[in-house]
Every structure is written in C-alpha cells, then in structure tokens.
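This part of the workshop introduces the protein records we will be handling. An example says more than a description, so a record of this kind follows:
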Amino acid sequence: MLQELHIENFALIDRLSLTFGAGLNVLTGETGAGKSIIIDALGLVLGERANANDLIRTGADRSVVEAVFDISGEPPAVREKIAELGLETDDEAVLLITRELRRGSGKSQCRINGRLMPVSTLKEVGENLVDVHGQHEHQSLLAADRHVDVLDKWLGKSVLALRGDVASRVTELNTLRRDLERLRGDARERTRTLDLYRFQQDEIDSASLVAGEEDDLAAERTRIANAEKLATAAAEAHAYLTGEDSGKGALDLVNAALASVEHASGMDETLAPVVEMIQGALSYLEDGAHELRSYQEAIEYDPERLEEIETRLNLIRTLKRKYGDTVEEILTYGAELREKLDHLENSEEREADLTARIEQGEKDLTKVAARLTSARKKGAQDFASKIAAELGDLGMTATKFEVSIEPQAITSKGADHIEFLLSPNPGEPLRPLAKIASGGEMSRIMLAMKSVIVREGGMPTMIFDEIDVGVGGRTGQVLGEKLEALGRESQILCITHLAQIASRAGDHFYIEKNVAEGRTSVTVAPLSSEQRVDEIVRMLGGSRRTEAVVQHAKDMLTAR
C-alpha cells in the first residue's frame, strides 16, 4: 500500500508530505482547491507522461515527487513483478519510487529504491501497485469495445494468455497474407524484374571475376609497359655485381676482402665472426646476381598481353560503375541477385507454400479463438452474478446485469463481441450501458466492478477521483459504505464532495488553496476528530452552523 507521498515544487504545491492509512482515505476541500493535483503528482511518480515546464512550480528549477510503498502484505503477483524487474532490495517490505523533473531539459530522472530506472519500468511497477479511477473513467464503460478488456482482466492469467496467443497468431497471419499479396502482384512487373536480374547475373557471371585480381592486373600492366627499363636496370645491377663490363665487380671485391680476413683470423681468432658475416654477404650477393640474370632473361615486352590486361581492366571498371565500387562488392551483388532470382523464379512454389501456411494458420487461430470464447462464456456468468450482487449492495437490487458474447470476425482480441447489458428496473429489457445508465448508475457499476476485481486479488491501492459525480442522497450513503468495505480489502484513496463518503473514512485530509503575497499555493493537512466534524458540516451544505447540523455530522462520523 501507499504509505507516504512527498511532493516538492509541483504545480501549486511548494512542499508537502502525506502519510496514508491502510483503509479508506478521503481528500476533501472546496471546489477548485486543487484536489486533483495530488492525483496528478501520484500519476507522475507512477510513470505517467509529463511536461516538465507545465508541472514545475513557477520560480523553481526542478520538481520532485516521492512515494513510499509497503509491499510486505501485497499479493504474490506484485512481489513477482518486482522480482522480475530485478528490484529486490535488502528491505523487501519497502519500495521507494522517486521522479524528478528539471526545467529546460524536459527530461525526468526516475529511481526505484535508489536505482536509476527508465520511465517504462516505473510504469510497469506502478500498474501493479495502484489503480486510478479518474473523474471521467466511467465513460470508458460506455465504449463497448472496452468491455472485453474489463472481462478478460477479471478472468485472469489463463484467459489473458489465450488472448495473447490469439494476438500473436493474428499478427503472423497478417504477415503471411501481406507476403502472399506481394507475391501475387503485377505479373508483368515481375517478368520485367526477372529479365533485368537475369541480364545482370549473366553479365557478372560471364566476367568470371576473382577477388583481388584488379590489383594483380594493374601490377602486371605496369611491368609489361616498363619491360625495357626493368631489363636495363636488371642488367646494370648484374654487371655491378659480377664485373662483366669493368673486369672487376662487387663479388670480386668481397671475395678479396674475405681472403684477407680469413688469413688474419688465423693469427687472431676474434676475427672469426667477421669471416662468417662476409661469407654470408657473399652468398646473398651471388644469389642476387643469379636472380637478376633470370629476371633479365624472363622479362619481355608483350603488347598482346598488355592489350588483354587493358581490356580486362576496362570490363572491371564497367562492372564497377553498375554494381559496386570493388570486385568484392560486385561479387556480393551477384550473390544477392541469385537469391532474388531464386525467390522470383520459384514464386509458384512459394505461393503454394504461403497459401498452405495461411490455411493452416487460420485453422489453428480458429481453434485458439474458440478456446478463448469458451473460457469467456464460462467465466462471464460468474462475473455477471458477482457484479449484480455488488450492485444490490449499492442499492440497485432490482438491476439485472449480463455479459453479452456474440460472434464476430477474429481480431487480435478474439472472435467475440462483448458488451455489458443492464436492466435497472423490473420489466425492462436488457440494453447496452451507453443507452440506459445514468451518471450515478455508472459510478455504482464501476465501483461494483472494482469491488469484484479487488476480491479476486486486485490492486493493493485504488484511487477514486470524484467517483460521486452525479450521485447524492441515499446513493451517496451506499457508495460510502461500499468504499469503506472495499477499504478492508485494499487501500482506498478517494477525492469526494459527498459527506456520506467522507464520513466513512479512517483518515481524512483537507485540501486548501491559499494566496499569500500574491502567490497561490495548495496545502493538504490531516484532520483531527474535531476538524472532521467541521468539514462534514461544510460538506453537508449548511450555510449556517446550527446545533442540528453539527449533531448530524457527529452522528455520521460515529455511525461508521
């Protein structure tokens, strides 16, 4: 449950700290006092979207909202979700959620038990801790397409799992159908595409490209084009080594040097390493001379080969302009073409495969949807009887409530059109809620549903923001009693204008708007027993404080 709420620089609130009780908590105040600001602040800390510049109090740079939850006694589903998100802490009984807004950046900072978290995680956690029923949420019951969500949520995990299975199968089938539609597209366009792909494939394949060959060809072209210069250089180098032109070359000189050092080493052994070095140099020089001779004899100017190379390089350049910046990219494009051609050339087989998969998928989807329908019909009667019982407790004893389940084309939510039907008076036929229920009836129907959901392991904390819209008199008394009873199952926070509801609370907070030095602020304070009497008197609408009104207020408070 929500233990504490701390708010700083939020809207019209400077600084505020509230401690809530376990049962029914009510917040009351004059119209326009800013009661919904508390709900907005709580929504912020539970992951709702926020515009920092609109919510941060004028003159402040940041706004902080902090909520402390006691989760020690909550349903297993709550603890499981927290563990699933990796939020276990040393003190597993407390969950501290903080949301900070900063002006200018428009960004917010979220923390759970001191750890930074994305807003999406905050929302996931919040959805398992608090259920907010806003002033106009009962309007959602007027939209029949929302009724299936209400029923499925009450039916629980098994039905939600079946619904998820239906949704995934619908998505898969839609993908297969789109693929088939594309495959069955314009046959003429497919033929043109096939011709283009085949031409490109033939052009690439006939070139017989080899990765890296362009560099090799360029190097060979350079050698052939410079064959004469290369041969001359090799001959000159060979002559310098062997002395062919001058009578004495480098080899002769090194041999003479070797003979001198070998003779000297006989007198001084320390020259032995030098002898080995010169011998090695001589060996390298002899090998070099041999290689130069072979190179000189092998190199020749071949104009035919040079023309072949130029032709090949021109072909590669042409293919590069069309299919890629390198030979490797051209080969990659060729491989992609083969896949595309295979896809197009085997379209008939693919069409048959897709058709078969769609037919099987439709059969499987129909079976799963039928199981979902069966589960809904099985649980709908129990749901309706529980709602009717709750409505009876709320003063609508003659009301009939029924869940209509009619077949429809399968969607991601199943094959059922679900609508809640109501007959508020004996002898009247069941009709859709949107056509028959008044504002007060809608409030009671919503409260009945919340009560049923809570008893099936619903939310730890439930918030009702002016659920008493359109309600008064005896109905208000019944709402108060029901909210008090609901508070024994879950923690309830209720913003109300009805004294009949406020008098049933265990904890009562008064919200007030003040103006000081030209600046407006909202304050919230818990009321003592005496202060509660005064507030109930105000809510009863007595323009004059008489002993009778005061006694009536005291009686209402002691009657709980």
